[in-house]
């Protein structure tokens, strides 16, 4: 980390907006805002803390139609929207009447992040990481990734005019390589699995000066981007919190940040204080948090992932214990489903609401279904489910499950014989 | 067409908002609003005509963040946003500083429709067709297509809860089949090319009662959806028209509708009247309009398409002659580029602005480049280029052109040796 440290004098006034410091989530130790990610006292994870001024609904509503409408609540400068960025966020919140009817729910909404600039929620976090990298005068914007993050980093870096270097496992399928390589001339294929790539990234972050690895040394700033999902859901519901929300769990960061967002909105008086339940969704092939939740324990036991939900396949989730805290405190739960159930849920969401989700979204919708069926989620309460990414990125997951109903000669008679008329 | 005619008494008051009639673009004959698409006098194409009330910027700005903010200017009922739809539109208008610098332009914007619900501008037109189908009490929502339109129809129909039947050529690549089949259980593969599929669709539209083929018997309503691209560009520029705009040409409908939108905004006093130039973009392998433009003739000579820009591959474009009219009248032009230039332009847009476009968008950006280089487009004037769809749908186009810069062992030493540090 030392090599990445920026001289304090080079960080301009107001670089991080209303952010006050980085605070250790374990021991509470405060560190000044900078490219730090681990507590110098106890090595616990650092998180951005704020001194918020009064923020009004009207100020937010007058802002741009992207995440920067919430800039007062993020660690970004007040002129953030003038720097080239992909302008993510303010994605659709769709009322899902058909899916609700199918699952026996009274009121259900889908927050659809598949329509973000590079088709996943990662554009939100990367936009915040990019702002931090800019303020730290970083010369390289980088990440290890197998998919969504790589796309988001490469695209955001291209638009911002900052050099990007994106590290992927060399055995990644070619279509996924193309989807990042199109944006950057510095895609690096690493002979090894994702863990190897990740380790290499940490090594480079320690060795090279001026590299901003979004999910390593600027992670505290990066992670704050997920709060915007929570802000948008509340604003799009008419400045209200839902009763229940189902969120996928990979590292667990997104779930904890949506909860943080809801709490901030309450504290700021932007929404009415009310109870809400947070549920976490995992795939059975990588369910360390769900397993701990069900066992009633606090410790997360790392696993070796084996699931089609690759964007959720983090065997040792950094924020797993905080997910347990949030779900238990709010009266929610953490649940997991099989890969077959993931596939079924992708098709279910597509057929009922016209949204094509990737395996992570299939996991979330499938877990919602299981939570209703098992009585863990109240079907009478207003529920939101988050779709974090696009099905075009994980086409293979359903390519065996769906296809033409009939193949016919080009004649009306042939069509009439199909019985589809 | 006769079978599809709806009894007038079944169409409710206000079903088409401020639309007054269908008017023949050739002879001016007026037909009452209904599922008609060809003039009963001269077989010319029908277009929606309106009696607009006073419409203010404030009314529009107070509307939803999708195409329905312009409902007063579309053939849809005033309560359109309450019917389940994919809520397309209000996509990003990004200032493209890097691309502008690369091309030597002073001011350039990209209107990015790749972030629409099913990742192309087709969601706009399909949403308008869906409204018409609903008002006509259609029981089936259908189309012939090879790609974007199939996705949009299948998704919109799923969400609206109306039966969809989507016809595709049976030799369509499996990923493209999956991208529609995920939304509908009635995907029909037809043994033949797109022309055969299209012919079959017209036959079914004539035989079956209550089928709304979006691009056949409800085409006049469908086509109006493209106007929203023009409205949004003007609103997002701060209620101003650009000086120049480059638009892809398949059937030619989109280009003519953007022009129609600009004209309507001027007539309604929503923007200042000013000259603007409209440019059409085609791929050399399917450039009947460009060829006619360059030859200075009015007649479009049909061609057999042979280009990677499949979503533009209409060899006999229905609105080609109107494209010629608009481009000539406004002082623009129609230009075409090779498939190699299309591929290069896809990478150029991705590397400069972080936008991954499909081959149609590559065609448009590449034509913009050619227009500047050939002096046909003024680099000092404010220019907008439309990106109509997403690169994930035409991955193959660039999969040979981009890839990893290096493949390395998972060690810092191996990375340092690449020279990328």
From TrEMBL, chains A, B:
Its cofactor is pyridoxal 5'-phosphate. Residues 88-389 form the Tryptophan synthase beta chain-like PALP domain. Its EC number is 4.2.3.1. The keyword Lyase applies. InterPro entries: Ser/Thr_Dehydratase, Thr_synthase-like, TrpB-like_PALP, TrpB-like_PALP_sf. Keywords: Lyase, Pyridoxal phosphate. Belongs to the threonine synthase family. This is Threonine synthase. It comes from Nocardioides oceani. The lineage of its organism: Bacteria, Bacillati, Actinomycetota, Actinomycetes, Propionibacteriales.
């Amino acid at each position: 980390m030392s090599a990445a440290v920026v001289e304090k004098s080079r960080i301009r006034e107001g670089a991080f907006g209303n952010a006050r410091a980085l605070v250790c989530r374990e021991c509470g130790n405060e560190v000044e805002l900078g490219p730090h990610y681990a507590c110098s006292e106890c090595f616990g994870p650092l998180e951005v803390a704020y001194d918020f001024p009064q923020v009004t609904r009207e100020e937010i509503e007058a802002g741009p139609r992207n995440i920067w409408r919430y800039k007062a609540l993020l660690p970004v400068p007040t002129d953030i929207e003038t720097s080239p960025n992909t302008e993510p966020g303010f994605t659709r919140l769709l009322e899902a009447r058909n899916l609700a009817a199918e699952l026996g729910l009274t009121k259900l909404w889908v927050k659809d992040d598949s329509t973000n600039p590079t088709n996943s929620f990662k554009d939100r976090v990367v936009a915040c990481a990019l702002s931090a990298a800019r303020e730290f005068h970083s010369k390289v914007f980088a990440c290890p990734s197998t998919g969504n993050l790589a796309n988001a980093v490469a695209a955001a870096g291209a638009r911002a005019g900052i050099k990007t270097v994106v590290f992927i496992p060399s055995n990644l399928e070619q279509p996924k390589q193309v989807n990042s390589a199109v944006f950057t001339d510095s895609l690096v294929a690493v002979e090894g699995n994702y863990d190897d790539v990740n380790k290499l990234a940490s090594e480079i972050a320690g060795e090279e000066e001026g590299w901003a690895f979004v999910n390593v040394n600027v992670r505290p700033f990066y992670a704050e981007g997920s709060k915007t999902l929570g802000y948008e859901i509340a604003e799009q519901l008419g400045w209200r919190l839902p009763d229940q929300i189902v969120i996928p769990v990979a590292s667990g960061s997104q779930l904890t940040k949506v909860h943080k967002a809801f709490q901030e909105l309450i504290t700021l008086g932007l929404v009415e204080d009310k109870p809400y339940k947070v549920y976490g969704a995992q795939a059975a092939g990588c369910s360390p948090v769900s397993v701990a939740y069900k066992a009633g324990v606090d410790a997360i036991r790392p696993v070796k992932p084996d699931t089609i939900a690759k964007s959720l396949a983090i065997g040792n989730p950094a924020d797993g214990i905080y997910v347990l805290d949030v779900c238990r405190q709010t009266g929610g739960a953490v649940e997991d489903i099989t890969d077959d159930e993931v596939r079924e849920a992708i098709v279910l969401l597509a057929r009922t609401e016209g949204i094509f989700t990737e395996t992570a979204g299939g996991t979330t919708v499938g877990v919602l279904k299981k939570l209703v069926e098992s009585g863990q989620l109240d079907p009478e309460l207003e529920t939101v489910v988050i779709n974090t990414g696009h099905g075009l990125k994980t086409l293979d997951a359903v390519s065996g499950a769906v296809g033409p109903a009939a193949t016919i000669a080009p004649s009306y008679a042939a069509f009439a014989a199909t019985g589809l008329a």
